[in-house]
Amino acid sequence: MIMHEIASSHISHIGFENGQLHITYRGGKTYVYPDCTEEMFTELLNSESKGKHLRTMGLKHSHTLES
Predict the structure, then answer these.
(1) What are the CA-CA distances from residue 36 to residues 17, 23, 25, 42, 56 (Å)?
(2) How far apart are CA 51 and CA 25, in angstroms?
(3) CB 7 within 8 A of CB 37
(4) Is the pLDDT of residue 63 over 90?
(5) In a 3-state reduction of DSSP, which class is residue 21?
(6) Is 51 helix (H, G, I), strand (E, B) or coil?
(7) What residues does each domain of the chain span?
(8) Residues 19 and 37: beta-carbon distance below 8 Å
(9) 29-61 residue pLDDT tens
(10) pTM score, two decimals?
């Protein structure tokens, strides 16, 4: 999966694969959000504020990945 570096105060990288959104926060933890579409990922990637847009998406993370 390609993790895209993001210019955000809270999010460092985002990636998408197999219907799962992966977000790595500045603190180092990566959260996995299932039930994400490619369209939702593209909208997030292109949004002006990633954090604000993520909150409007209605996704809940299922688990975190070890750093």
Answers:
(1) 9, 12, 18, 10, 13
(2) 10
(3) no
(4) no
(5) strand
(6) helix
(7) 4-65
(8) yes
(9) 999 999 999 999 999 999 999 989 998 998 888
(10) 0.87
